Amino acid sequence: MGKNIAETQQIFLFCDGGSCQKAGSEEVVRNVRAYLRNSGQWDSTHTIKTRCNGRCEDAPTCIVQPNYWYKDLTPQKGLEIIKSHLEHQKPVEDYLLYQDEWSEIKSEKERGAFTPKPFSIKMDSELGECRITKGFASDQYTYPLFLYLSENSPYSTLSLANRTSFSFSEIKNVNYSQKYTLELELAEETIELIIAPIDQKNQNLVKKRIAVVEYFEQLDSLKKGIRLKNKFGEELGLIWLENHAWQYCLEVQLKGIKLETV
């Protein structure tokens, strides 16, 4: 039976992403839920296991409404946080990562945000002399890229190994509902691309996964494109871009990087 949310007075959002799971989030949630059950506060308190909250370096994490973020949770810390909010309506400041009106987060593990490096000029064995840089290979970038091109750039083309190239106008639908797989639905077939992190023991999928995304501009022709590779540096696909699609890549996929070289 589902919980009657009309009776819920407090909500706790526990991250259940991969990094938090590895850091022990499941034990934290189990401990908290056992306490709520035994203390008679189960019906008035709702605990939710979310996917990634975006603070992997501070795992395990928890968000308490309206906007208290906690870090480095343990089962004991989880209980302290629950009790403080339920019994005293205030946070446990020593465990906070962030709360409203703070000008910055409080983390000893903060990593600087990754930004693409400037383009460099290289003589590539396949592309010739070109400006080139690496972008983001996360599915949070790869899926939007294919979605944008299918919706906005019909004359951009995609070439994959062992098949003829085709334009993005031929793609009827871009579907990302599978765990690892992006599906490009054409009139006669569906092409599968592995774009999400996978178990490294499955070498077949590892070899198929897009792990490197390179953006380039050929110096002689000024043609622009994207090269897709696996973690071993083997080419999986090549996208040739229309000019407006290239501009999208610079602004969105590469976070406003300038077409300058170092």
Overview of this protein structure:
This protein has 262 residues and is an alpha+beta fold. The chain has helices spanning 18-22, 25-38, 75-88, 139-152, 203-208, 243-253; strands spanning 10-15, 45-50, 62-64, 68-70, 96-99, 120-124, 128-134, 157-160, 166-167, 173-175, 181-185, 190-194, 212-218, 224-229, 235-240. Helix content is 24%, strand content 27%. The strands form three sheets. Strands 6-7-13-14-15-8-9 form a seven-stranded antiparallel sheet, covered by helices on one side. Strands 2-1-3-4-5 form a five-stranded mixed sheet, covered by helices on one side. A three-stranded antiparallel sheet has the order 10-11-12. A hairpin with a 5-residue loop joins strand 14 and strand 15 (235-240). Helix 2 (25-38) packs across helix 3 (75-88). The mean pLDDT is 93.
Topology:
Elements: E1 10-15, H1 18-22, H2 25-38, E2 45-50, E3 62-64, E4 68-70, H3 75-88, E5 96-99, E6 120-124, E7 128-134, H4 139-152, E8 157-160, E9 166-167, E10 173-175, E11 181-185, E12 190-194, H5 203-208, E13 212-218, E14 224-229, E15 235-240, H6 243-253
Parallel strand pairs: 1-2
Antiparallel strand pairs: 1-3, 3-4, 4-5, 6-7, 7-13, 8-9, 8-15, 10-11, 11-12, 13-14, 14-15
Helix pairs in contact: 2-3
